[in-house]
């Protein structure tokens, strides 16, 4: 009987991953410090590396949130970029309000784009965004609410698999078209740029970069811990059960709509937070972030890393984006072949992603 | 335990003009073990779908005690105490045997409740008990995906037991089992009945005979004959349906 | 300038008095835009048919001017002097350029001059031109032309032109006749003329308003039909784009994100065919029709290669296929970009696909859109026929319904899969031929259609070609009906949101397969 | 040696890539080349327009090197692909400036890409030459704008349409792609038209999304708007890909230039190369350069281009000319300053004059914009433009339009 009472012992593999993760986080945390070193030092890390890594961290959180929805709950959302972008827009609105009279036209309240488009007063939905706590609330609430509505309608109607993917794709596509309209009051194609400060800290300085970098890193570690803890509870197992045999789970008495909705909304909120930290780091948010291609790319990061493992999502987000950054400079005409080829190769030969590859190699050695 | 009876009256299900169930009426008393037999397409699985909320009847009443099942969805019906075992064993392949049974264990089913849930000694004992009952203690930490066909059938029955239902719907439980396993299963179902109501759908007449209880024969969506196994086996209409073509 | 005068003086004795005015006007054609326009007007007013080839030449850019001011005319390889008709050396001569003002004058003058042309098509065009240029001086010309004219369609146009010209007349009665005649039409141009006249003729306001109201009644009906046509036309484009997907996704369950790239390949095939056949006199006009089978084959071959090479390893894993084909799409797009350049490629339209066709009630439909509508229905018909009535279609349906049994019956399922996928891809290629007539032929061509195509298939009901047809047409018409109120972007957003809600209500689309089979 | 587990290595892989990147940093040799950043999209939606500009910069680098480089140093182009993705533009700009340490950058097409890189160039004190006509309302010490400001394109074009030669238009249709350049331009134009006595009832304004391909409804509405008894003209700020289906629809619905002329601000030779122009003869475009300009400088430019690209079908257009002019002005400024240091070159560029292919001597003004001629061309059957009007002299750029009332209380400096 004792064998049944204990939970399974953590495998060596898991321990390995944990150590690896801790080292990776420590190394990441060291980057801004190395950036402060004198330029001629061998360990100096350029601003470019810090800022680009900060961006990847946000992508990694997006990948993580997607892995929670797809890898665990089986919801392949091709519209996760929309939640990311909505979080980004909420943060962007806050940053725009903070510009205040420092805009080109010196208007005390209206952002520049509203001035030259002839707005006379702030649209109602812009009110409140001057407050940081309110903006942060919106960063999570807006994507969460959208996920709640779309998820509720879809899950209640038992829309799953491919249909759900197409539906979420249509969602982000419709949002993209809508946000491209200048009449929406979100700056149209140009979106928001020219941010000045955040929490009293002028943007575009090394210290602001470091602060945002650490904030992203904290978000990443926090989300990782949250997702890991969540997936280790019975709830995580219920999600896996729903993913593998949803109707069986229903006959066991699990209201799968509620369970999926919970995961989907949580995932959307995480994506929104990632977007919110992304925007001040890249300095721009525009409707291009809603483009369906972006969401598919995010799915591909997870697939490349290995889905349903959390660590795989991080691995995928970092490796694919690093590759992209490198290749768009090293082979500007050919990088699409390399990236496209990678996606093909991974789906064909590594159904469990890079994580699966390491697993296989390890098993091969052990045998 | 105050039992509730299952009550189907005049249930009709139409798919695209095809009548899968045709004015079907059936009563299963608390604690009863009822076998249901019938040729392919007689409407056995559709009947289970209607009871468990998967399919909405075109007309007719389905009641469990005083609850109208036609208005409820699958999870609510399951939580009322109606458990179902599928024809093709469906268990959660990526989870271990232990975890499969843990999920089935009677407990609050909401997301927050699941997050807060932790394995108490009592629960672990209960899971151990169920695993013993279905003979899968040794495989407790193996993923269900690597079990043999028979073991998966057992696991699913174990999950049903862990659910602690008032009414069990069992669809072809012995398909693909050896004779010994079949006998064991029959004995177990008989043991379960009494405490709970059990409805077994089966092709295997020997197995039904081994159960030795009341039998209902379905044909083209309605009840053709009902009574003891000997009674139905000698019913000319049943002979006609089974042998006449 | 002095030289010109000398030239004119020299020429004068050779020609009669009537020709004096003609010859006097000619040099103006070589002047500035304002002079050109004036000279054209004068030549038109003279009514001398000799002016026709000269004005045509000016309009087509075949009128040349030597540095010394001599005007030359080019007819094919022959270059002659305008004034003398003698052969001339074009060396050093530059073609005369014109602007819109001159073009407007040319149209009026040529119209007036060709009202007496023996060619009915020319007379029709002339009537149209005179209608647009409308001046009082045209009235006698038009009346004379009407007296001679026997063809009813030309008469109709002439009467309209006469009515329009009368509006410019100072004579009240003539104006009244003009108003009455214009009020009978369903022409938006006539309405414009009336509105213009209303401002200058307060006395006739009542009659003009009545005439406008009468036109408006007909215009409303006409616009309704035009909106319907435009909706169906948009629907036909969606149908073409989605049809291939309805086969690969609807029948096989393969999500092909590279579908748009197959459409793009079809469009590029059209371009290549056009270039390859450009110098073959007998075939050049047929390059577009010939592109249809060519595009089918190219896209089908790529489709077959994709299926055999990659997709078949992923059956039963539709989501992985989605990712894989997304990667393949990226590569195809970049390959085309490197091979053909990132710029748009020009695919010209054959004459029978240009211009507008007037249907009863004055409903105007553009020829290319009409052809594409017809073409899309034909492609749908052929697709349905291929699936219903051929051996391949039978095998395809068998494999879709039950792979194992089909295989047991000796159907080579792998071959059927490849053929089915090639077939769907080929249809996408055909769609590309049609899209080359209305959209850019660029590497990005397919990207714009992929999501719409998926929406059409899902909305119509997966696995149902009838659903795809109805879905595409519904979306097209609804979109066009919303457009005037909501604007282009919001109309599209509304349609997308409506589809999302519709899918919630009916997850399996308009033409859903019901019953047990659909539950799996 | 303790062998790290593979999984640990896996977790480090992404990071490793990040850490090795600085190793690419070049070592500065004595005669290190002058680095020219090229920041144009080579993939995605904007590749269609921007690849030609990449080629133009590469051509100029090659040409300058054939003349012995600059300051005795060779020029070296660093090409990156920002893939029509705006945040990627900012990332690539930072990479060009910090990793590749470029001396000057030529790049961007869309306003949003410029807005995206602007803070990066300002933060890192880089220098960007932006070669495309735009909406104005911007000024940066790190950007030089070699395309037109609205007063160098839009307003002269509309004035022409209203003149006798242009047809004397009294009603104007403003069609545009829904983004900031058309929106701002049309706002400026509306102010201008109102000041000329054309009321809002005679102005129709409509916007479409990027890549819009179904123009049936809009063209029908334009026709209806035009048939109200006043001469009507279209002013198009339709961008990129959407033009081909738009012009096809215009031709097919029989809208002739004589009846409703359409003047475009974003359609040049490159765009016309994808269209059969025969039905469009007489429609107009306003630019500061046309390939058909007759001038020795243009002949030299076109010869250089053909020698480089070796494809007789490839045309030149206004943004290419602006890139060419900008490059030459930068080269002159470097030669004059005897350094490539950004601050020195910035002061030295201002006031530089160059005999541009447009046939005029253009000058870099203190507001970082050029003085340029304005030309109006009519589309010809061969895909070229026939120049029907041009300003007698160059027009200095006004990047802050007088027709936007808010500019009156704009903060200066």
Automatic annotation (TrEMBL), chain B:
It holds the Pfam family ABC_tran. PROSITE patterns: ABC_TRANSPORTER_2. This is Urea ABC transporter ATP-binding protein UrtD. One of its GO terms (molecular function) is ATP hydrolysis activity. InterPro entries: AAA+_ATPase (IPR003593), ABC_AA/LPS_Transport (IPR051120), ABC_transporter-like_ATP-bd (IPR003439), ABC_transptr_urea_ATP-bd_UrtD (IPR017781), BCA_ABC_TP_C (IPR032823), P-loop_NTPase (IPR027417). It comes from Neoroseomonas marina. Residues 6-245 form the ABC transporter domain. GO terms for cellular component: plasma membrane. Keywords: ATP-binding, Nucleotide-binding, Transport. The keyword Cytoplasm does not apply. PANTHER family: CONSERVED COMPONENT OF ABC TRANSPORTER FOR NATURAL AMINO ACIDS-RELATED, HIGH-AFFINITY BRANCHED-CHAIN AMINO ACID TRANSPORT ATP-BINDING PROTEIN. It comes from the Bacteria.
